[in-house]
Amino acid sequence: MLTVEGLSSAYGRIAVLHEVSLTVAQGEIVALVGSNGAGKTTLLRTISGVQPLTGGRILFDGARIEHMPAHARVGLGIAQSPEGRQVFGPLSVEDNLRLGAFRRQDAGLAERLAQAYAMFPILREKRAIPAMSLSGGQQQMLAIARALMAAPKLLLLDEPSLGLAPLLVDQILNAVVSLRDRGMTILLVEQNASAALAIADRGYVLETGRMVHQGAAQSLLADPRMRAAYLGL
Amino acid sequence: MAEFLQLLFSGLTVGAVYALVALGFTLIYNASDVINFAQGDFVMIGGMGTVFLAAAGLSLPLAAFIAILAAVAAGLLLHRLAIEPARGASPVALIMITIGASIFIKGVAQIVFDKQFHSLPAFTGSDPIALGGATILPQSLWVVGGAIVLFIALYLFLERTLLGKAVLATAANRLAARLVGINVKVILALAFGVSAAIGAIAGVLVTPITLTRYDIGTLFALKGFAAAMVGGMGHPLGAVVGGILIGLMEAFGAGYISSTYKDGVAFLAILLVLFFMPRGLFGGGSVERV
Ligand SMILES: Nc1ncnc2c1ncn2[C@@H]1O[C@H](COP(=O)(O)OP(=O)(O)OP(=O)(O)O)[C@@H](O)[C@H]1O
Ligand SMILES: [Mg+2]
Question: What DSSP designation does B127 have?
Fold first, then answer.
């Protein structure tokens, strides 16, 4: 579904990604792990088109998209729940969700809204209040639900568990699994590598802008080098 | 009492115009962080355009309509040719660009129009209406009524339509707006176009009362900017309240103290606000951003 080939990206003159390649197949959860500042967020931003690339290609469903503007990529079916939540603070929870469907004003909108509320009932309770008055965990749920409102084919999740209580982390990772079980394709970025690999089908390890490991999630979890360097085991 | 009412009416009339100009500042500031000092020139294009098109034989409504379209075109060009290419520039540089654009527009207006003062006939006669011992011009009712209609229309657009929400979303978080698929370039162009239309409509409404000239925009920009600052930059309701406050202060200051310093009132208001409540009455964007 998604193929990234030899992708490079930079902030100004500082190169951050060096010829990174990755594929995500229909219906799988792919975990992208790596330490602080490895470039995981930059890679997701480049896939979404909000960060320029300096080289390489991005293919989505076989078509080149690396020069498409960000809004067109959402239209193709790539939605992202960004790092740091990035909710529309002054707007109500429900407005945030409706804006998630900005490119997908179809008959299924009401149903997706109902699904989002079923997945995170607290959001229904708080639907009329400004998003900025939600707690961090609730904002994270809102960011994920907002991305789902676009009915994406590919969902990019950047650190959905960052700063959340363990119970909430489990709830969110369970939600990710159930999305996959319903047929969605997911690229999941996590600093918490073992939790991410535990629910993923395959995994990639990014280190200072380069892909250094890849493989089935189970074998990465079992790999002694991985366990020492990234899993803290 | 009659004098008080008289001053109140005239203060509300100019205040309504300042509020409209301030609303134009607010809309553009919210969508793009730009303080557009060419905002007053949209008022001029609306007024002067209508004067000259009407003089060329067009009916008043048609002339006004075309003048407003011309202002919208100017707003879109301002965005496309001056603001968009300077994306990422510092706020001060962007302010300089809008001041430059304002000077340019005045230069063009001098050539296309002329350097004289002009007026328009009042829309529905100029017989003053007596009210509680004071009088009010029918045109003042047009100004205040027109402003109220525009406020309501803008409110409904922003609060009740998906496109309006997209403007608010872009103002709140531009990265997130792009990630949900909003084309923020189009939203910014929309903000400039709508601001220009609001300014031009204000110009059409007020020209029968205040006269207009190619350089009238400077004064409106300063008053509108002051109103937006007093209300809290970026806050729509603040813009309206700020505009009316400055209009009233000017009218009462001129009536009870002296009209010599009428145009100084706006500056006094800015200074007081910067001193005592730097975020404005309604707590908009901080002044550091200016
Ligand atoms: N806006 C920016 N301007 C300049 N450099 C940046 C910017 N954002 C990130 N960087 C740098 O790019 C590198 C990769 O950052 P990125 O945020 O993509 O890493 P990450 O893997 O997501 O890290 P984290 O786990 O902390 O979220 C880092 O060295 C970071 O300092
Ligand atoms: Mg990151």
Answer: P
Query: Backbone phi, then psi, for A57, in 5-degree steps?
Result: -135, 155
Structural domain boundaries in chain A: 2-77+152-231, 88-151
Residue to probe by mutation, ligand 1, list A9, A16, A81, A192, most atoms within 8 Å of CB: A16
Q: Which residue has the tokens 């309240």?
A: B241
Task: Give me the phi and psi of A50, to 5 degrees please.
Answer: -100, 5
> Per the CB < 8 Å rule, is B181 touching A70?
yes
Min distance A18 CA to chain B CA atoms (Å) = 24
- The minimum CA-CA distance between B26 and chain A, rounded to whole Å, is 16
Domain boundaries, chain B: 2-124+138-276
- Looking at residue B284, its pLDDT comes to 60
Of how many residues is chain A composed?
A: 233
Cβ contact A68:A49 at 8 Å: yes
pLDDT score, position A232: 65
Asked if B38 and B221 count as a contact pair (C-beta separation under 8 A), the reply is yes
Among A48, A49, A102, the residue with its CB nearest the CB of B182 is A102
Low-confidence stretches of chain A (pLDDT beneath 70): 232-233
Give residue ranges with CB within 6 A of ligand 1.
A 11, 14, 16, 34, 36-42, 83, 191
Fold classification of B2-124+138-276 is ABC transporter involved in vitamin B12 uptake, BtuC (1.10.3470)
Ligand 1 atom closest to Cα of A209? Answer: 14
Closest CA to A119 of A147, A99, A95: A147
B6-36: burial string, b at 16+ Cβ within 10 Å, e else: bbbbbbbbbbbbbbbbbbbbbbbbbbbebbb
State the ipTM, two decimals.
Answer: 0.95
CA distance A60 to A153: 10
Please tell me the distance in Å from B277's CA to the nearest CA on chain A. 22
For chain B, what's the residue count? 290
Residue from B155, B151, B184, B145 nearest B167 by CA? B184
Q: Which residues of chain B have pLDDT under 50?
A: 286-290
Q: Any idea which ligand is nearest the CA of A18?
A: 1
Domain A2-77+152-231: give its CATH code. Answer: 3.40.50.300
Cβ contact (<8 Å) for B180 and A86?
no
CB contact under 8 A, A86 and B173: yes
Interatomic CA distance for residues B257 and A219, integer angstroms: 85
Protein residue with least CA distance to atom 3, ligand 1 = A11
